[in-house]
Amino acid sequence: MLEEEIMLGAKVPSQWREKYEALARDAGISLTEVVRDALAQYIGAHNKSSALVSPLELLQSQITTLREQVEELMLYKNQMRELSIRLSVLEQGITKIQTELVPSGTISVSDAVLIDPDEEYFEDEPDEILTDFLPNAKGL
C-alpha cells in the first residue's frame, strides 16, 4: 500500500535553491526529489533508492578508502624496511669478502682499467697478438 503524500511548503534562502538545483542537475533528478531526500535524511528516514549520497555517507566512503590506502602504504613501508636491512647485510657481506680475498695493496676490481674494444689500440687478430712480441716473427 502506498503512503499518502502531502504538499509542504517552506521558504529558503535563494543560495539554497541554487545548491538544490545544482544537486538535482548533477544527480539527474528533480528538484522535488532533492528536497524530499534532504528532509528524509534530516529525520532519519533516508530512502536507499535515492540518487543523492548524503555528505555523511560520502565521508564514510572516503574514510574507508583512505584507511585502505594507509594500510597499503604501511605494508610498503614495512617491505622497504625489510629490503633496507637485507641490502645492509649484503653490503656488509661484500665488504667482508673483499677484505678477505683481496690483500691490501693489490689492485681491486674497482681499480681495474677495462679495455674498450672500439678503441684503435685494440687488435682483434689472435695470430698478430701471438707473433708481434716475438723478435724473429716479424718476417713470417
Q: How much beta, percentage-wise?
A: under 5%
Helix count, per DSSP? 4
User: Order of SSEs, N→C?
Assistant: HHHH
Q: What value does the average pLDDT take?
A: 77
* Count of beta strands: 0
Largest β sheet strand count, sense and barrel closure: none
Helix content: 55-70%
Q: Compute the CA-based radius of gyration.
A: 40 Å
The structure class reads mainly alpha
What's the arrangement of secondary structure elements?
Layout: H1 14-27, H2 31-43, H3 55-101, H4 126-132
Helix pairs in contact: 1-2
Overview of the structural elements:
The protein is mostly helical and 140 residues long. 58% of the residues lie in helices and 0% in strands. It contains 4 helices and no strands. Helix 1 crosses helix 2. The longest helix has 47 residues.
Could you give a quick summary of the protein structure above?
The protein is mainly α and 140 residues long. The chain has helices spanning 14-27, 31-43, 55-101, 126-132.
List keywords for this structure.
140 residues, single chain
